[in-house]
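hey so u asked for the seq, here:
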Amino acid sequence: HRSHLFAAALIASYCIDVVRGACIFASMMTILGNKWYALKGCYLVIFLTAVCSSLSPYIGHSIAMDTVGSSIFGRVTLDKPVGGATGSLGEAILWAVGPLAAASYLLQLVTLRFFN
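ran it, C-alpha cells below
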C-alpha cells in the first residue's frame, strides 16, 4: 500500500532517467559528429549504463552487509532491530548509496577535463 506521492515520485524519477539517457545520447552524438562509429559507441555507453544501473542494488546490498550487517532488501521499518547486532535500514541505505554516489561524483570530476 504505497501513497500517491510515492507513486508520483517514482514516475517522475523514471521520466528523469529517460530524459537523462536521451541527453547523454544526443550530446555524445553531437561531440562525435554523427558518424557510424559514434552511433555504435553511444549504444555501447547506453548498454553499459543499463548494466551498471541493474547491478547497483546488489553491489549496494553487498556494501551494506559488509559495513553494518544489515540488508537493504530485508525490512520495512527504519528502526534498529531489537537485537542490536545489525544496523538499521537507514544505516544500510546510507552505506549502500553513499560510496557509490561518491565514486560517481569523483569519476565525473575526473572526466570534466576532457570536455569543453
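Helices lie at 4-32, 36-67, 89-111. The mean pLDDT is 81.
lmk if thats what u needed
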